[in-house]
Amino acid sequence: MRALVMTAPGGAENSQIQEIAAPHPGPGQVAIDVAYAGLNFVDVMTRRGDAAYAADWPYRPGKEVSGTVRALGAGVTGLAVGDRVVAAPVGAGLAEAVVAEAALTVPLPDGVALREAAAVPLGLATSVLLLTDAGRFTAGDTVLVHSAGGGIGNAVARLVPLLGGGRLIGTVGRPEKAAAAIASGYDHAFARTDEAAEAIRAAAGGRGVDLVLDPLGTAALDLDLAVAAPGARIVLFGNAGGGTVADLPPLGRLMAGNLTVTGFSHRGLAATDPERLARAIRRVLDLLADGGLELPVTELPGLDAVPAAHDAMQDGLATGKYVVRVDG
After folding, report:
1. What CATH number was assigned to the domain covering residues 2-119+295-325?
2. Residue 72: helix, strand or coil by DSSP?
3. Which residues lie below 8 Å from residue 211, measured CB to CB, with a gap of 6+?
4. Among 9, 20, 75, 200, fewest CB within 10 Å belongs to which?
5. How many other C-beta atoms are found inside a 10 Å radius of the C-beta of residue 296?
6. Is the dihedral of CA 215, 218, 219, 225 positive or negative?
7. What is the mean pLDDT of residues 27-47?
8. If DSSP codes are grouped into helix, strand and coil, which group holds residue 285?
9. Neighbours of 191 (CB within 10 A)
10. Residue 1's pLDDT is what?
């Protein structure tokens, strides 16, 4: 079968489409013929060699897929060969077939297309969990999202109205991406410049923001604290810039503002509490099936197009969510 293989840390020059053996499921696992796979920034971080993302090389990326069940491992119940499913494999999803844990393989409801479903197991499920579990979103909250033009940012913009509504403020790395964030549902969007704090506070009505969703490591943490309303929650869920992570704020500063700083990891949740992640996946699929949620995606025509898309994501030129058609 064909699969995308990253041979060493670096860029697109180290991403190759190779012919490899199709995988077989072990106990508690499911083999899936991949129809579509989602692209996520975590694969860009792995490709460039960020610490803790790849234990060894070569590495096979891809952490969310849609497709049909190819084979079942021992002990798997509730699924059958030929079922349409989505899954969150630990990796290797950018391939014609992949193995995933049955606990993180969820049947696809009628009416949900495989194309859009490929954005669910990591991107949309993470967005739901960031808002509800980690961020304790309440209807009417003012929410600040960094990297608002990306896949998570787009998903949050579409989920907040379904969770009761609130004021949405986004930041983007490039000024020209602000308009796309507004078009996706943000009330305000600003480039991350020295004037961003003042602009965010004004957009929040002078009070500050109730919830911050921040994938930038600690690079924007001073900004987060500067615009946080009393009792705000700050959720750190990545380190997109790849820089050194700084210490968290002193306890006194957090206590003075009744602030909460929380970490979130999709990978950690998949390893330690897969049922919680599966519930989030099912919740999003139900929203898609009911027609309440729509998420535009950009379809790539095949695996050969993925390295260039990873380049665009790394350079901050991508907008929205990419999925790649794998089954031809």
Report:
1. 3.90.180.10
2. strand
3. 131, 135, 136, 137, 141, 142, 143, 144, 232, 233, 234, 235
4. 75
5. 11
6. positive
7. 96
8. helix
9. 15
10. 96
The three-point CA angle 80-81-84 to 5° equals 85
Q: Which structure tokens are listed for 99?
A: 């193995």
Q: What is the Cα–Cα distance from 165 to 328, expressed in whole angstroms? A: 39
Residue-wise burial string across 104-122, b where 16 or more C-beta atoms lie within 10 A, e elsewhere? bbbebeeebebebbbbbbb
Burial of 132: CB neighbours in 10 Å, binned 0-12, 13-18, 19+: middle
DSSP labels for 116-129?
Answer: HHTTIIIIIHHHHH
User: What residue ranges do the domains of the chain occupy?
Assistant: 2-119+295-325, 123-266
In angstroms, how far is CA 16 from the centroid of its own chain? 23
Q: Tell me the residue type at 82.
A: G
pTM of the complete model beyond 0.90? yes
**Span 168-211, pLDDT tens digits:** 999 999 999 999 999 999 999 999 999 999 999 999 999 999 99
**Mean pLDDT on 282-300:** 94
Residue range 219-244: average pLDDT? 93
* Superfamily name with CATH number, domain 123-266: Medium-chain alcohol dehydrogenases, catalytic domain (3.90.180.10)
Distance (Å, rounded) from C-alpha 119 to C-alpha 279?
15
Average pLDDT value for residue range 270-274: 96
Q: Which residue in this structure is represented by tokens 């630990």?
A: 90
Residue 106 has pLDDT above 80, yes or no: yes
- Cα separation of 283 and 96, whole Å? 27
Evaluate whether 2-119+295-325 and 123-266 have a shared fold. yes
User: For the chain, what is the mean pLDDT?
Assistant: 95
Angle at 46 between CA 40 and CA 52, to 5 degrees: 120
**Is the pLDDT score of 152 beyond 90?**
yes
Cβ contacts of 47 within 8 Å, gap of 6 or more: 6, 9, 10, 11, 14, 15, 61, 310, 314
